[in-house]
Amino acid sequence: MSGTLDLLLKERIVAIVRGLEGESADRAAEALVGGGIRLVEVTMNTPGALKTIAGWREKFDGRAAIGAGTVLDLQMAKEAAAAGAMYLISPNLDEEVIAFGAERGLSVWPGVMTPTEIVRAWKAGAEAVKVFPMASLGVGYLAEIRAPLDHIPMIATGGVDLTTIRSYFEAGAAAVGIGSRLLNREWIKAGDFERLTDNARRYVEIVRSLT
Fold first, then answer.
1. What is the number of alpha carbons within 13 Å of residue 44 lying toward its C-beta?
2. Are the beta carbons of 171 and 137 closer than 8 angstroms?
3. Lyase: present as a keyword of the record (predicted)?
């Protein structure tokens, strides 16, 4: 088990940063880390994603693990790794990306939906999988697939908020991915970064209460 997977299983929340750039992105990330978030994913379809990943690796060194999200193929994986991404997350299953991660010592958490995809990803070397889209599939679906596949860590992504987060963990999620519920655009636009920190802290406190 890699150190990054250890961190995932301990902290249990991955913040998903999509579409934010520049100073507002920097301040938002600082707010989340200040609230206790320890894994931050910058999606590759965010403008300037590679620059952000590189900058945050330095800025948050020792405070948070910075990864790349929406890594769709091998080329994206190579670019993300070169920028300093500590782990790679995808909405899809690409075994070339998993193999690349294994070669580089990078955790790869691919997107899966069906039991067949989950087992394929695991056999290919993925340390954990991202079950997506959970907002559509529902907590009941997660509980059902966890029953026969409880040896595979699953990151539930989609539909996670303060009222539902407990139910995802009760259904067997090892961790959750959270985007807009942590990065409220109206708060960011208003410069209300303290509110982002307070909100992040609430999520972190719920997770800690479960352990």
1. 23
2. no
3. yes
pLDDT for the residue numbered 160? 96
Residue that is written with structure tokens 């352990």 in the block:
211
Report whether 135 contacts 158 (CB < 8 A).
Answer: yes
Where in the chain are the domains? 3-204
Residue 33, phi-psi category: left (phi > 0), alpha (psi -120 to 50), beta (remainder): alpha
| Gap between the Cα atoms of 92 and 100, Å rounded | 15
Distance CA 207, CA 131 (A): 19
Low-confidence ranges of the chain (pLDDT < 70): 1, 211
Beta bridge partners of 41: 16, 67
- Is the distance from CB of 105 to CB of 4 less than 8 angstroms? no
- 158 contacts 142 by C-beta, under 8 angstroms: no
The residues that are catalytic are 41, 130
For residue 2, what pLDDT is reported?
Answer: 81
DSSP assigned state of 176: E
Structure tokens belonging to residue 18: 């999509």
- 33 three-class SS: helix
- CA dist 83 and 65 (Å) reads 13
How far is the C-alpha of 198 from the C-alpha of 182, rounded, in Å?
10
Q: DSSP character for 83?
A: H
CATH superfamily, with its number, for domain 3-204 = Aldolase class I (3.20.20.70)
